[in-house]
What does this fold into?
Amino acid sequence: MQAAKHIHLIGICGTAMASLAGMLQLKGYRVTGSDMAAYPPMSDFLRELGIAVAEPFSQKNLEPAPDLVIVGNALSRGNAEVEYVLDRRLPFTSMAAITHDEFIAGHESLVVAGTHGKTTTTSMLAWIYEVASRRRAELVPSFLIGGIAENFGSSFQLRNGRIFIIEGDEYDTAFFDKGPKFMHYFPDALILTHVEFDHADIYRDLEAVQTAFKRLVNLVPGRGRIVAFDGTKNVTECVANAFCPVERYGFMAGSYWQLKDLVQREGHTTWSVLRGGEAWGSFTLPMAGEHNALNATAAAALAFGQGVELAAIEEALRTFASVKRRLEVKDVIDGVTIVDDFAHHPTAIRETLRALRASYAGARLWVVLEPRSNTLRRNVFERELVEALGLADEIILAGVFKQESIPEKERLHPEAILRGLQEAGHRAELHASANEIVDAIAPRLKKGDVVAILSNGGFDGIYEKLPSRLKEAMRVAP
It folds into this structure.
């Protein structure tokens, strides 16, 4: 019996790479991987799959030589394993290219793209198809999502149907392919949520970001469809020259999918949707946030246009269970609620805090931010960041993650954000590390408080350290 082909993933602990590893394993390949450091949830995810992760990067991780190496997009020249691959001329490719070749080709490709909301929207769309497949087996979806969808307990699924749903990331593909990953996914239908300046490390300005999305729009065939947010001129410009039908969604009068009568109460959101000006559906979502109602409407619109029944859509949204690290309640200790959110951009921070205000009306809202994304670590959004953080009652800033790796003239200096917040009358403070933050806030937290911890990384274990400190205080309290 021939041994299974061995595929090694460099940078395996990225969300998409870990998911790809699981998919390749399901397809029968022998999968290994390596990374500099592993942290939850993807480290736990890979452990559960039984996929070995070597730390740190080393050429020894590639001995004996695998049949194929997949190079993550965070890797660059100078990495020990990348150099070994090039020196030995080992076969290599990118995550996006192999995803297309192994999983998307021959399927109906449904792509969800945009600066914000794509992970949640992709998860909603996958769950809609999953619920619909209970009555129509041909709708059963395969999917790849940039987060762990709670309804599935996974970020991927491989089934035998024709549908493949994928989150379309605008970040570049690899050090040898600087185009966006989503250019490999060739959508038959596309959701475009928001288009804003982001990824300041690879995009020069908003125009460059728009150019990337325009190229994605240009891949949708004439027989396809685009469901696009109606709320910004940036999206309008990106879809203006599409060769397929474009259906706008949002709150604007005249949009093909128009949200009406939105109400948020006790962590639930209800609203209705007009389709082409006519009453179409009424929806309940067990999560707060106007942005989540928009995400759900986009997923509903795409699914309905592809032949999914309204009843299945309504049931799926009513039972949607969110995504890990998206307004995820990590713990409730003595009445203090600790929430984890991936917020990576001032707009995402604003919408997260607005949703928490709606969910926990009257609570004292703390926000703890680690500037960690490649955009937040730069000074391009100082004013917007001050405005977004100002929605909280108590604001705690951490030091910028690996600040020294950002050119001095481009760096975000949290002292400037702190000064802006304080000048605007907000209660804000700066602490260099997770340990200092825990020391500073744990004694001041009271029953009824909500603490939103925002980072797109592990934040030096603060998600575990703060609950542990609060539980310890409970044990020693008289």
